[in-house]
# Entry
Amino acid sequence: MGADRARVFFALWPGAELAQALAAAAREAQAECGGRATALEKIHLTLFFVGDVERGRVVSLQALAGSVRTNAFSLDFNAIGYWRHNRIIWGGTRRCPEALARLAANLQERLSAEGIESEARPYVPHVTLVRNAQRGPQRTKLEPLAWHADDFVLVESVPARDGVRYDVIGRWPLLAST
# Structure
């Protein structure tokens, strides 16, 4: 990607302990099903994939993110699944918290007003654990992992020698839960 372009997305970024637990689940799923486990430093939950934008537009995306007002929330990662069509093993939740759905919808609405359209499918909160899996996992339950989300981030996917690295380029707090 040229210096004048950035590939970006909005996400929830886990704390170190949760990231380590999800990375361990990814390695276990990879051992069972093959494929490529998501590296610890890339574990995240995408809220909205923006894609390639002019680098100058990043500032407006950051301002847009600052206008989002949604409560902090907790979600329990307790499910594991497999999307055969793209060979992804994912970790997720059986119930999307209302505040998470609102956060994703608020971002989508604001980005759409800026001419950035989303995919025409329902929002499904998940963490990609394994890519290019040869088959789905035997289990469908994940040892429950609690994720307390009190902020969200804008991330740039930066080309690197071994693929890409993810750089957090903005962070915004969620409102305190009442």
